[in-house]
Amino acid sequence: MEPAKKVEQPRTWDSPSSSAPKPRQPERMYGESGREIKPWEITVGKIIFYLTVATALWFFYWLNGIQCPC
Q1: Cα–Cα–Cα angle for 18, 24, 30, nearest 5°?
Q2: For residue 29, which of 5, 37, 56, 60 is within the disulfide window of CB 3.0 to 4.6 Å?
Q3: How far apart are CA 46 and CA 43, in angstroms?
């Protein structure tokens, strides 16, 4: 049976604050055309989406109320 090989450990005392986490840079988002999408554009898009969903739900609720003869 062979002895286990010793793995060389990296020297951490040579690099200053190597264990300190670095701040993450925000990821950039790109559209299909390759144009960078700004964070405010995503926020506006979400607002428009949720308003559309809310309007559609209200419309079908109202439409159901009109059709119900009971």
Answers
A1: 140
A2: 37
A3: 5
